[in-house]
């Protein structure tokens, strides 16, 4: 019974690994994830979280391009967006799926 449980856990881990690999390939295929997108994901995870103007300054992008790319990354499930107030910029941070494009683990919380 114990060995069976261990085998099931091992199968689940392997399935999760396979599923995340399939998800990553699907996102790249459907969304055309660019090298700059990957750099943005790495930047966000390196600093933990950021706002759109910081991304724009870091990558020399106009504000509307930043928001368009971030919306696509959000729809792809790679980033999360948290807005505390209408008066301030929302905060972007990586989802667990987005962190798979970086060398660092995902940030647990803000």
Plain-language structure description:
- This protein is 62% helix and 9% strand.
- The protein is mainly alpha-helical.
- A hairpin with an 8-residue loop joins strand 2 (79-82) and strand 3.
Key terms:
9% strand; 3-stranded antiparallel β-sheet; 62% helix; mainly alpha; 110 residues; 5 helices
SSE arrangement:
Blueprint: H1 2-31, H2 35-47, E1 50-51, H3 52-59, H4 63-75, E2 79-82, E3 91-94, H5 96-99
Helix pairs in contact: 3-4
Task: Summarize this structure briefly.
Helices cover 62% and strands 9% of the residues. It contains five helices and three strands; from the N terminus they run ααβααββα. Helix 3 crosses helix 4.
For the largest beta sheet, what order do the strands appear in spatially?
Answer: 1-3-2
Order of helices and strands: HHEHHEEH
Instruction: Tell me the overall shape.
Output: elongated
Query: How many β-strand runs?
Result: 3
Beta-strand residue percentage: 5-15%
Structural class: mainly alpha
Helix content: 55-70%
What does the main sheet amount to?
3 strands, antiparallel
Q: In angstroms, what is the radius of gyration?
A: 17 Å
- Our count of helices gives 5
Look at the structure and give the mean pLDDT. 83
Distance between the termini: 41 Å
- Stretches where pLDDT is under 50 for at least 5 consecutive residues are none
